[in-house]
Amino acid sequence: AGFILLYSLYLLLKINSPASYCVFNFCIECLEHSTGVVPLDWRIANIVPIFKKGEKSDPGNYRPVSLTSVVCKILEKILKEKVVRDIEANGNWDKLQHGFTKGRSCQTNLISFFEKVTDFLDKGNAVDLIYLNFSKAFDTVPHGELLVKLEKIGINMKVERWISNWLKGRLQRVILKGELSGWRKVTSGVPQGSVLGPILFNLFIADFGTKSGSVLIKFADDTKLGAIANSEKDRDIIQEDLDDLVNWSDSNRMKFNSEKCKVMHLGINNKN
After folding, report:
1. Which residues form the domain of 101?
2. Which pTM was predicted?
3. What pLDDT, in 10s, does the model give residues 228-241?
4. Coil, helix or strand at residue 144
5. Is the separation of the CB atoms in 120 and 127 below 8 Å?
6. Is the dihedral of CA 114, 214, 149, 169 positive or negative?
7. Is residue 271 part of a domain?
């Protein structure tokens, strides 16, 4: 029966059938009129640690990818489309974000940034580039702050409530070489490997930016900041931008990964 339900939902979603949205509406209505709790099976995850680089004995060098309910992922996809429509209707897309965004990629990220930087350099300017990266970005998103931002952005109230319950009371365990750890409570973050995780993260950091005319481009949690640095005043503006970004990270309970934050000084007249 479970396979039949899963395959039926898959077919409805694949052909973009209105019936798939009936399933979505039914799930949301059930949520509103019952206890308001997402099924536990939809809130648990087996974590597969994926090695990135560095010492293999350091747990911090692994990316925790969540294996979650496939049926839940189908509903997540429907909800994601609803969230996208709400954002488009409200004009709240983050124009600086190139990660997990339709029509954008690493290439568009690099081209957009370096087109502006090379223009500065071609005009004989000194240019400073700052590369910023959050530590454990997806895993440390505070749920309370995220939900407040979803409300401000104008996400459908029913969808926001579902997301809230989907994030609450999550459990996870690590699976490695056939061995399982015990279950642990999840108190922050959006699941890596889920459908909704990336777009929720993008919405959370949409207001991560500067007030000056500096060039700022994002790819998920990786941010590049570039600005002219001809004078002391220019460098003061860059410092003010960095102060704004640090203040944002403090107020949103996110930490920068100092090992991955770098500075580059470009231009033959750059005195730094």
Report:
1. 2-266
2. 0.87
3. 999 999 999 999 99
4. helix
5. yes
6. positive
7. no
